[in-house]
User: Fold these one by one.
Assistant:
Number 1:
Amino acid sequence: MPLLSTGPSHNRKNLLPFVYLVPIFFLAFCGINQSAHAINLSVTEQEIITAVKEHSSEALDLLEKSVKINSGTMNEAGVRDVGQLFRIQFDQLGFSTDWVEMPPAMHRAGHLVAEREGKQGKRLLLIGHLDTVFEKDSPTPLWIRRENKIWGQGVIDMKGGNVVIVSALRALQKVGVLKDTRILVVLSGDEEQVGSPLHIARAALINAAKRSEVALAFESMMQDANGNDAGTVGRRAIGSFSLKVSGKQGHSSRIFGAGGDGAIYEAARILTKFREQLVEPGLTFNVGTILGGTEVVYDKQTKKGDVFGKFNVIPKVTVAEGDLRYLTHEQRDHTYARMNEIVAQHLHGTKADIHFHEIYPPMAPTPGNMKLLDIFSKASSDAGLGTINPISPSLRGAGDVQFVAPYVDSLDGLGTAGGGDHSPDEFMDLPSLERATIRAALMIFRLTR
């Protein structure tokens, strides 16, 4: 059961009562720098913001060091090196740290887990990842800075978010409010290409979730249609479907008659019905591969295949593979059921089977997640950084937070802002590093009181 309030929540704007306006105008007239957050923040919280700003250069230095280490998922040595860099930071913050090894056959470096034991406030789980999509032979430059923009491998996905975690905790430590908190940190080493079997690859993360009350994930901050920072309260599941259709091979002159309709027409019927009858918010399905003919060989691992067929022969086999994305397990279940119904309505002389596989579970936008966003938005607004509205789940891909969402209220997108992620143009807006750190530090502080 979620430990946060699960009643309806709304994004609230901080409206100062009229009685506060007179002193504010007076202070402004006198030339005193009096921002709105001086009223909405406690003295301790103002000290936290000051500590963040005083250590901004250290945060940037840590970011540069981590980005300059290639840590593509399959570069196990690079992932370990980045893990060691961050492990040192958590050791200095008084965390107990551990490197969780993966079986050699998985060809994954492992995960960094850091923990503080205490008795105060909620037990938090902070989530990041050490790997990037840029493998060791990637030609993408490691680090380029031009004024307030930084380009680099994984600079926002998600080494910037990892630095936000460390920098926020460092600010809390400096002010003296990190002690006696209960915080778990998991930085996985294979988020971009999860190892198999999945139950081993995500065991450390799921175990941490089961011991926590709130999960905060530090993937990049996204913007809404108006260019304002937005939080992630939901991410759609990622699954797959495999369709295999068979028909009666024969002379093409007998198509639609004694020879049946053939495997390709049956596959086309099925996929067209999917498109026509399964249109609803939050659900998408993409056919990524289709092969049809007299003979088909398809390798699911390499995603490559060979096909043989002739224009005057009714095709005997068609295979298709695609992905499924959905927002809840209820949506998944009724989609599976409807797809099976469509597949079962065979054309003459054909038959078909469909199979499903879930890779990432859904992170539904639950009331508990919305309540977390409310708290985050309030912290941001109180600091003078604006309110945070939710981003549509359809605009985000998959993330590690989805493995913990079934167990604990979760919020994602607390990291830095930028663009071009997963491309050679991946960049970070430098001011977002300090902005994200202030928000995170206040959020963690308030949850751990």
Number 2:
Amino acid sequence: MISLFKLLRFLGPTLLFFGTFVVLPPLALSYFNNIPDAQLLNIYLGCIAYSIVIFFTLRQRKFSYSPKDGFVITFLTWVMISLLASLPFQNANMVFYDALFEAVSGLTTTGSTVIKDLSLFPDHILLYRQLLQWAGGVGLVIVVLAIIPAVSGGMKVLQAETSGFADKSFSPRLRETARSLLKFYALITIACVFSYWLAGMTWFEAFSHSFSTVSIGGFSIYNENFGYFNNPAIEFVAVFFMVMSATNFGLHFLSFTKRSLKYYLSNDELKLFLSTILIIVLISTLTLYIKEGFTIDESIRYGFFQTISIVTTTGFTIEPLSALGGSVGFLIFIVAFIGACSGSVGGGIKVWRILLLFKVGFSNITKIMHPSAISSVKLNGEKIASSQIEAVFSFVAIYISFFLLFMFVLIFQNVDFYSAFSGTAAAINNLGPGLGDFSENYSTLSDVGKFTLTMAMIVGRLELFGVLILFVPSFWRS
């Protein structure tokens, strides 16, 4: 019963945030456009009413959160908010599995869609869809920083997940850290809005796309995605903010507050991330020009934008990935498994884990060549504990296992291997568009297939352990 009260207590501010920042703006837009949405109104009033009840009942109660509480509440909050977020889509004549898929895709900042024609939806639903991604991006920050560090030993868990981001990039006090992140997230969102507007978007387009850019979501209000604008300036703005949002927010915060670039220059993860982008952009551009027959201008444009969009796990497109040829699409999908940096809103395995795997590999090669040599694995100049190395190898092994499991379910649903591979990779890496049958949308999937990828998105967003630990019997006994 106490655990139930803890969940109800946490849902209070969560629903207040959801109602105020996700539901209210599109609700106001629907009234402004003279097509008031009764479903959004009911959701908003319900969120506010629930928050008021919690404020006057459970807000003053002092709860001691255990690790079990932290993981259970985090998972259940994601599930309950996802179900709530699917209601406006169901009201827009989408069936349950489609609506849930779209809602989870938004909240997890994946960007996959089952919608064939976005022009059939009113502007306020399109805005709601974009805001789901913005809230999902900042929501990860809120859940991880507000729940896990609050429980016993949680800061160590957070540190392992973010490569020191929690205790070095911000204030050691949790509330101050969360506020700093929220302020920075809002700041770069506003900067992105003005940049899009200056590049040629309307205010509605600028706000809508900034929400999905800063969150590394990938949703657009147009069927053609960024190809609708056909504007290199807009694409450049998108690339800049995609890279910025895929980088550790702690580095941004420190560099801006301390007014020094040394934090960027001394970070091993960022160096590998930018180097990977540069190399893959170069390979993609040359492949498009030499093998696929694109002009040099098209090769540079597509290679630059599409590669960065996929590698950062954003998922914006200016052409369907299938139109770029099989080689480029498959290449950038493989690299997308690396994902974004720690402490960012991006998906994937995360760059720091890949870097650690490389360092361990080279360290073992050194030991083979020089058995008596003493070597240690370091990241950003600090020695990495063996327990953290074991955690990284375990994470990657489980990540691949989950990927193969979800892909097998799709293949069992008669999806061809190429499409199943890309669809599963897009879901678990929170990427968005796929290849083959899923290069434009996922509407051809069966209900089972859609639910499978819905679960893959949640698993990828919670970074596996937050979900897997709930199925370990000893977790519930201890």
